[in-house]
Amino acid sequence: MLVHLISFLSANDLWNISLTCKRIWNIVDVFKFWELLFEQSCPRIYYAMQFNSRWSNPTSYQSKMILCYIDKLPKEYYKTFDKSDENGQIKKIIGVMKNNLHNPTILRETCYILKRLSYRQRKEDEHESLIARYDGIGLILCAMKNHPYDAGVQEDACGALGNLTCDSPNNLGLYSNDNYLTVVEMGGIGLILHAMKNHLMNPGVQYNTSFVLRNLARNDVSESRVAQEGGIQSIATAMRNHPNHIGIQTQGCGALRNLGCNDSNKILSAKEGGIGLILRAMRAFASHPDLQLNGCGALRNLARNEDNKNMISRQNGIQLVLAAMSNHPDDPDVQDEGCAALINLAYQDEANEETIAREGGITLILKAMRNHPYHSGVQMQGRGALKNLSCNPKNKLTIARSGGIELMNIAMQNHPNFANRFLELMRILQVALEDNPVNNLF
């Protein structure tokens, strides 16, 4: 009978009654009433909490606390909410944040929930848009502003911002949301950089702040803002202080990659030691495809500056790009960025053209194009790298005799929108063969 009665209690009633009697407390925990209450009333939040080591079980203090605060919310949070917000769960978490802006414990847990909810695991989920519509971004930034020295708040707040701004463009280069602009316009860059400076040796903070800066560096304006407020220096410092942390190194390379699209940032990244840090990360984590992808991408952008290109070459950057391609032949994104980096490293540079060929670059580019015939990025970047390398007569003949003409023909058929570019290189290679016929020894 007691068990049956308890099952109808609210979170606050359950908490208060449990405190009055140890036996009732044990019954509540043994029969998993907290777990059932959470799963029934807030299934999405219940799912999110499963990934938090602090919430190792549904009877933890944090889970009980969140349920009780949800129970105390005004009635408005239970009546009106977005139709795509199942039972107003996200609005309720936002409400708990709004009512507890000076409670770092609550803010950390709610930021963590928003981080998990905005990590899109299903295409149909649009939690990040809902959170933004409920002013979740503003509340997260307010939490960071109110508790600058609380590493937990800063870590999970930046983690939430990272997921909220993590968005890939479609085929037209358009993004599904503009959360990154909201973060920039609301002063988020400064708060993120303060978090980096206040928690230099905290790997969780450094990882998540680098992650957000990587996402914010999405257009020329935001790239300039991040650099002007000291973002490149902070990213370089994070990579320098945490050389063995794969996450920080990957996000650092990704941030420098995006920031390197801006011409001024190319110079500043090199000045802050960014090139050396990227190359060191690529050496240290040769078997990690995501790091190699971002390392090659960063070198690709930085190499569009002549001084940077020379610095990369002097520090064996060409060899590291080729090693990335060699170690990850089945990863089209690594091959794509590797070929793109070789395009810029070989551009109007005779020494680099010879180095790339001598180190087996031509073979690797041709192999990438053979292995990924339907990947437009690999095909276009591979073609671009071969074209620049073919400025060297010896390389041109090597490409033609190694199957380059056949690969251009296949690429024309698979990617008709770029057929003219493949045809151009195919004709160049055909002329090279005609001018240098193989001697018939028989």
From TrEMBL:
Alphabetically sorted, this entry's keywords are: Repeat
ARM repeat residues: 187-231, 230-274, 273-317, 360-404
Offer one example of a GO biological process linked to this entry. cell motility
Report the residue ranges that make up the F-box domain in this protein: 1-37
Q: Which residues form a coiled coil?
A: none
Under the heading Pfam families, the entry gives: ARM_LRRK2
One example of the protein's molecular function in GO is: alpha-catenin binding
Which SUPFAM superfamilies does this entry report, sorted A to Z?
A: ARM repeat, F-box domain
Q: What is this protein called?
A: F-box domain-containing protein
Lineage of the source organism? Eukaryota, Amoebozoa, Evosea, Eumycetozoa, Dictyostelia
